[in-house]
């Protein structure tokens, strides 16, 4: 799992790539907490995500919930069709009630990524 | 005479059963179960395969150790057998353990029976020495008193027949008019003989010669070296308890089957074993850490891709297998994952086996059907995903662990 982040005027964008699974789930939640804590709005870009499971997005789910409860804005964008289907079956999108956008926006830049 | 280590695959082989010397009640364990064996003299432990059982003895395969002397065999944390280990057949790593007692938590009837009877046996309320004084005149009265005391034990109210005997001066005679069959009385004499040799009270479960009755037999040594014997017919109790548990299990199986439109099926271990024999194993690996999951997915993908899986369907199956595999880490210390291909039926089956504490029968509906957010690190949606992405799920869960089979048709 790789990631890259940008921050501009209280708006952070986290670009994730690879497999969002049990081994990296907690780290993903920590990153969202870290960037969400110091920005008013966070966009999570899923274009590079090729696999998700319930353990991998569990921490992301709970952190997103906390940020929303504290008045922050969170959106998830550029989700591949097949990954969106898995998120839907997991109940992720319905339970959070947030915008989850399909692929179509700016993608992940592999050259600038860090490894989780 | 050779004991085949693949005995369950050879239906004609009965050597392991014959060695138990238990008549028709002995059964093979299909599939063989891994058990922990502790030698009570040294407290050294080892692993063995439980391959045969009867009411009075079990058969173990152990190629690493000689299982002799007094042993504790741990089938599960709350299911243990204490017994004496013997070499089953010379030259073969097969050992017979004669059961002394069975320690169970959930089998309340059996547990209570033993404990309550032990309490009675040790109690001064029924000091057996009293039976010796003027017994000729007081037989009826003593018999009545003992029965009266036994009636206080609620569990024994369910028992139809109790025989009380006294062994004195080489003669075995009943207290009262009830008399057991001659073959059972022979067993009593044998047990009394062993109790006198050991100088301690003994308990044994026996089956009548026709195989239709099961008795709990207790021989209690008295201070003057005579012996009191209680023989309790537990046939009905055992049969009723088994029927009750079986009915309960069938109810859960039916409900889960109906609610999931036949997608989730509870099966016995033996049924699961037979199911897997329909296919051939293509892959097997252990999952011990979250980092193993990626390798598992890659291995499954490279094995299944050439079989003609559509990309999305393969992804969904991998997600389901991954959820089941990660469950073994969440609820235990990992497990074993295997992949079976059944070419005749154009399907594959992933087998996920862990040796955790299992899912209690009453928790099964909630564990398998309720989609919730139960922990901080997981969405608690594992079974929901499996049900959505697999064609069928077979489940067998006991205190010794859980076996889950995820089935996916290749061509749909």
TrEMBL record, chain A:
InterPro entries xref list: STAS_dom, STAS_dom_sf
Organism, as annotated: Brevibacillus gelatini
Domain annotation STAS: ranges: 1-116
Name of the protein in question: Anti-sigma factor antagonist
PROSITE patterns, per database record: STAS
Superkingdom, natural source: Bacteria
GO molecular function, one term: anti-sigma factor antagonist activity
Gene3D superfamilies, per the entry: STAS domain
Automatic annotation (TrEMBL), chain B:
Molecular function per GO: ATP binding
Domain Histidine kinase/HSP90-like ATPase per the UniProt entry, residue ranges: 289-406
Keyword Nucleotide-binding: yes
Keywords associated with the record: ATP-binding, Nucleotide-binding
Cited Pfam families: HATPase_c_2
InterPro entries reported for this sequence: HATPase_C_sf, HATPase_dom
Protein name: ATP-binding protein
């Amino acid at each position: 799992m790789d990631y890259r982040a940008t921050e501009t005027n209280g708006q952070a964008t986290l670009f994730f790539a690879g497999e969002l699974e049990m081994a990296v789930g907690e780290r993903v939640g920590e990153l969202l907490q870290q960037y969400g804590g110091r920005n008013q709005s966070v966009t999570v870009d899923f274009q590079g995500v090729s696999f998700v499971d319930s353990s991998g997005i569990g921490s992301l789910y709970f952190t997103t919930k906390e940020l929303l409860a504290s008045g922050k804005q969170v959106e998830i964008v550029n989700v591949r069709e097949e990954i969106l289907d898995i998120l839907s079956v997991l109940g992720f999108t319905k339970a959070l009630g947030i915008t989850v956008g399909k692929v179509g926006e700016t993608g992940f830049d592999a050259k600038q990524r860090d490894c989780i | 005479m050779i004991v085949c280590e693949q005995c369950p695959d050879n239906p004609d082989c009965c050597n392991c059963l014959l060695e138990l010397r238990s008549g028709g009640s002995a059964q093979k364990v299909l599939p063989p179960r891994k058990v922990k064996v502790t030698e009570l003299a040294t407290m050294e432990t080892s692993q063995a395969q439980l391959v045969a059982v009867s009411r009075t003895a079990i058969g173990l395969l152990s190629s690493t150790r000689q299982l002799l002397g007094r042993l504790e065999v741990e089938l599960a944390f709350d299911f243990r057998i204490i017994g004496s280990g013997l070499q089953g057949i010379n030259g073969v790593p097969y050992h017979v353990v004669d059961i002394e007692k069975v320690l169970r938590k959930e089998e309340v009837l059996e547990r209570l029976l033993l404990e309550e009877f032990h309490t009675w046996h040790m109690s001064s309320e029924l000091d057996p020495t009293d039976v010796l004084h003027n017994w000729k005149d007081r037989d009826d009265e003593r018999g009545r008193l003992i029965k009266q005391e036994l009636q206080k034990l609620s569990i024994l109210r369910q028992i139809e027949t109790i025989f009380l005997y006294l062994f004195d001066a080489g003669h075995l005679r009943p207290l009262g008019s009830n008399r057991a069959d001659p073959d059972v009385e022979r067993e009593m004499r044998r047990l009394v003989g062993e109790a006198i040799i050991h100088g301690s009270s003994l308990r044994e479960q026996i089956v009548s010669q026709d195989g239709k009755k099961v008795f709990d037999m207790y021989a209690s040594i008295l201070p003057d070296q005579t012996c009191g014997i209680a023989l309790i017919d537990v046939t009905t109790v055992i049969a009723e308890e088994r029927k009750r548990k079986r009915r309960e299990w069938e109810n859960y199986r039916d409900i889960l089957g109906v609610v999931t439109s036949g997608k989730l099926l509870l099966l016995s271990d033996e049924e699961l074993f037979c199911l897997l024999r329909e296919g051939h194993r293509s892959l097997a690996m252990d999952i011990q850490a979250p980092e193993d999951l990626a390798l598992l997915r890659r291995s499954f993908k490279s094995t299944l891709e050439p079989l003609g899986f559509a990309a999305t369907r393969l992804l969904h199956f991998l997600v389901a297998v991954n959820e089941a595999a990660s469950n073994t880490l969440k609820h235990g210390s990992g497990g074993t994952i295997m992949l079976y291909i059944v070419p005749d039926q154009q399907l594959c089956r992933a087998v996920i086996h862990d040796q955790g504490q299992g899912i209690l029968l009453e928790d099964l509906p909630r564990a398998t059907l309720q989609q919730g957010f139960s922990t901080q690190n997981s969405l608690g949606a594992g079974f929901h995903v499996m049900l959505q992405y697999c064609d069928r799920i077979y489940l067998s869960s006991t205190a010794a662990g859980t076996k889950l089979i995820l089935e996916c048709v290749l061509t749909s």
